[in-house]
Amino acid sequence: xxxxxxxxxxxxxxxxxxxxxxxxxxxxxxxxxxxxxxxxxxxxxxxxxxxxxxxxxxxxxxxxxxxxxxxxxxxxxxxxxxxxxxxxxxxxxxxxxxxxxxxxxxxxxxxxxxxxx
Length: 117
Hints:
Layout: E1 4-8, E2 12-17, E3 23-28, E4 39-42, H1 63-80, H2 88-107
Antiparallel strand pairs: 1-2, 2-3, 3-4
């Protein structure tokens, strides 16, 4: 699949790879432990959405499992009338971050999100 995303900031970075969808890689520039490099965080039964699918950290969930979680959240939102994360507003904010990243690349400077409407 090869879909990977990395977000790098001044204090660290996050990396997600669709081929290893049960892991999130975290890098903290000023690590309290003094350890350098990315730390792998695994989904598991301690994460409520995965409790029914993961026997323990590192046991993978599949595409079908993810769809079941999404459908459950969608039906819950219909039943309760309450928004379920992520909302359309969250999607809009992600789009603003992407637009800022493109502008930053084009203009070779930091771009404040306040500049993106």
